[in-house]
């Protein structure tokens, strides 16, 4: 019996993100977490409110996982 499953994830872009820097822009990146553990992180896109990442990941999920979450920071 398998102990985990694989999930293919594509993080493409963010649109109209809120400005978080004093300069009126942001330096966004995206985190993918499985049960509060970071399993993937995109590159930081400097000075952008509409970042393009175009990144792909294969994440191994334990069969008993509870939460899969995406955060744009």
Automatic annotation (TrEMBL):
Q: Which residues form the C2 domain?
A: 1-73
> One Pfam family this chain carries?
C2
What protein is this chain from? RAS protein activator like 1
Which gene underlies this protein? RASAL1
């Amino acid at each position: 019996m398998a102990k985990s499953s694989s999930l293919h994830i594509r993080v493409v872009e963010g649109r109209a993100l809120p400005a978080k820097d004093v300069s009126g822009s942001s330096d966004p990146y995206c985190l993918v977490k499985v049960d509060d553990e970071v399993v993937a992180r995109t590159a930081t896109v400097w000075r952008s409110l509409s970042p393009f990442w175009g990144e792909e990941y294969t994440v191994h999920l334990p069969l008993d996982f509870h939460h899969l979450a995406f955060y744009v920071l």
